Every structure is written in structure tokens, then in C-alpha cells.
TrEMBL record:
GO BP annotations listed: DNA biosynthetic process
Name by which UniProt lists this protein: Pol polyprotein
Family matches, as Pfam families: Peptidase_A17
Species this chain originates from: Lygus hesperus
SUPFAM superfamilies registered for this protein in UniProt: DNA/RNA polymerases
Top-level division of the source organism's lineage: Eukaryota
Entries under InterPro entries matching the protein: DNA/RNA_pol_sf, Retrotrans_Pao, Rev_trsase/Diguanyl_cyclase
Amino acid sequence: DKLLVGPKLQNDIGQVVTRFRLYKVAMSCDIKQMYREIALHPDDSVYQHIFFRFSPDEPVREWELVRVTFGISSAPFLALRTLKQLVLDEGPSYPRAVQVISQESYIDDLLTGGSSVDEVLQLKEELIALLSSGGFQLDKWASSEPGVFSGMGATPRELGVGGSDSLKVLGLWWDPTPDVFRFKIDVTDDPFTKRGVLSRIARIYDFNGYLGPVTLGIKSFLQQLWMETLGWDDSLPGKFHNQWNRTLDELPLLESVSIPRCILDPTWYRIQFVGFSDASSLGMAAVVYLRAETTFGVSCHLIKSKTKVAPLKTW
């Protein structure tokens, strides 16, 4: 609590994912152990002391952590400010890599791409060169095109291409082979209480609102529980118990939903952003679509939605 947290430097996670959808060929990676590659000034590391022993037979010893450490309140600022300084010092030689680090990253995750495999290959080399000049390594590569990683000496499954399993990128599940976003539902049993309902809602990670119609209904259900003045660990009354049980039975159906990652069509000649909004006594919502007229017809893609339950108090 003595450390200055520093300003928020990380990009908006929803904007990073939306930019990721603009590329025909997608590529993702992360900066390997980014925090541990950044040394602290000795005047600051004195505030990072821990007690530790390597076995129960050893005495407890005091250790000073001389690197940026995960869990310390100032760590995100220190890491991102270091990356920014690297961009200022070395960036002029790597303009495209600078754009990725500045606009297409979230902490240590990079989500980017290009219009062709050759373009992405060039970008990959720029990123490796720029970050290695600061002592950083890139890891956990993935792409929608296997050709991006030819000659890297790893299997397609290790690189996140051509496998049947989705990869987790910024909380979303991305399947590079069909190049779609998917959703995985945690089937952990929660108690049928208000605390259990809230815990379940918190595990549906949907920052761009792709599942808005579903999450709004669940949030409305939680609001009804608040109106019943139930305790956090009180069992749900009969009608709420049955309603929540039906919801839990249907939630796994969300795993069949897929969202195309790429919204770019090279043949489009006219695009529009179309927005809608509506409200009722239960809630309100707004949504934005991308509508594109192409040589093959019209295509529409969901970009973002926001939902909110109606307030209990009215003017």
C-alpha cells in the first residue's frame, strides 16, 4: 500500500478484440514472462520483500524481489511503461510492430494479423526483432494460417493451428481452424443461492456482448432475487429454484454458438455501421452491426452490444 499504482496504460480489451477481427490472416502470441524480464530500481525493490523457505526443514528467510512481480499493484504500469519506452527508443525501425504493441495488445497478449501470409510473416519478424532488443521473447504463437509458422520447428498443435481445440485469447475461446470465437460453459455445480447465481454470472465472460440476450435474462433474474431480500446463502424459493434449474440446463447450448473472427471482406465496396437500441420495464440494450455490400451480396456482423437491467427506482 506504499507503492504508487500509476495510471492505467492497458488498452481496452474489447477494442483489442474488435481490431483483431479486421484481419484476413490472424496471429496471436504473448510476451514470455514479461514481468520477470523487467528489473526494479534498488530504491523500489526494498518494498518487495517476502518470507519463504524451500523445505519445511529450513528456517524461514526474508527475500527481496528485484523484478516486477505479479500481484503487486504497480506491476501493470511498470511493465507497460517499460514497453512504451522500448517503443520510443527502438520503434522507428519497426513501425508495424509499434502499432501492434501500442494498439493491438493487452498487457502481455498480442492479437494482430494482416491481409496475407507474407504480410504477417514480415510483421512476425518485426515483433521478434523489436522485443528482443529489449530482452523480451515471444511465446504461444497461434494463427489462422499454418504457413505463418513454417520453419519454426514446432508442430501445428503446439503453435495453435490446425488442432481441434480452441485457444484462450483475452478470455475468449478462438478456434483458429474454422477461425471462429466460441464459448465454453463452466459446468461446476454451484449452490442454488443468490451467491451461487452471482458466481455463475461472473463466469460468463462476454465483454463485447455477443451473448447479450442471454446475459440480460440472467441479470434480470438476479435482480428479482434482490427484490426478495434473500440472504446470500439462503436457498432459492420454489419458483426461483425451478427457473434457475431450467437456465442451468440450457446454458451448455451456448457452446454451439460461434462468432466469425474475421469481419473483413476484400470485395466490399460499401460499408455501414448500423445501431439499434431499445428498452422495456425489464431492461435496456444497444447493439452495433457492420453491414457490408460485397460483390457476392450483403453480409452483417455483430460488433458489440451492451445490456443493462432496468433500475428498480424510477423518477
